[in-house]
Each structure stands twice: as structure tokens, then as C-alpha cells.
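Go through this:
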Amino acid sequence: MRQAVGMDQGSSYDADIDRVIVSEEQIRDKTVELAKQVAEDYRRVDGVLLVGVLKGAVMFMADFARAMGRNGRSVEMEFMAVSSYGQRSTSSGVVRILKDLDRDIAGRHVIVVEDIVDSGLTLSWLLKYLASRSAASVEVVALLRKPDAIKVNIPVKYVGFDIPNEFVVGYGLDFAERYRELPYVGVLKPSVYARA
């Protein structure tokens, strides 16, 4: 999966990226594949509610919701904002709700849309929180997962890519609120976050 950062990307961030590990095309293809699988699994279920975790999941959430629609599934979208990172490059494990759900999810089939499963600590907390709100079911679709970084066993039914335990940015993932708009996922040079 290793490939050089293409200068045709035209980003001022190119010099900060060591290498691209998931290309724009790979993301697009995998999103379509995941949406097709989820749409099939939920074909007999009314009212699928996608819950995106701000801000990182926004890009994936939008593309995933559109792909679900192309597979004949209408979905509703809801957003939460939780924090366990702050300005750090690793999760603290202490979760704070910055923005809660705007609606009752009791009896709803919820699919949490995640950009990345890293330590799993935040996601583990979020799944318990959503279950406590009496959802009919709660599953997770994650674009990325770092198997070597996971600290808690959590059920992630749908995973796009397993990636190395390196600090990645792009396609919604950030460092200090930068790099989210990159169309690919790339490894950030350690020299960039060592300065912070």
C-alpha cells in the first residue's frame, strides 16, 4: 500500500506527509464496498440512523451516506462530538461530550461512523453510552483501524483498512485541526508533531 505523495495533489501540506498509505481512489472504492455490505445487512430494517463522530468522521460520513443512498437505503444522520485527544497525538482515554445527539435514539438501529479506531477507548465509551440510550442496535463502520494500537476489545463489524500504528492525517483526520481536507490518508512526519 506504500506510495509516494503525488505532487499533483497540490496541497501546501505535501512536505509534511511522509507517505500516502490509503489513496483517494482506495477510499472511494472501499466506501462503496462498505455501504453495499451495510445496505444489504440492513435491508429489512426501517430507519437506519448514522451517527458520525465530529470532526474526523465528517468526510467519511458524507461519502458513506451518499453511497448508502445509491444502494437504495435512505438514512438519517446525527452527529456527536467527543474529545479524548485535545492537541495531543495520542488519546488520553478520558472522554468528554462536546456535542450530544439532538434526538432520541430509543428503538433506532444506529450505525456509528468512525474515521479511525485507534486505542478503542473513546469508541468503547461511546458504544456503552449509545446502548444506555436504548438503541435497538448499535454497530460500527470504521474506515481505518490500527490493530496494534487497540487497548480494549470492541466489536467493529465493518472495517475499511487495517493500517500500521503510525500517526496519520487526511480525509478528516487531523493534527491540531490541520490536514483534514487532504483527499488521501498519509503518515505525518514525526518532525511535524514533535514540534508541537
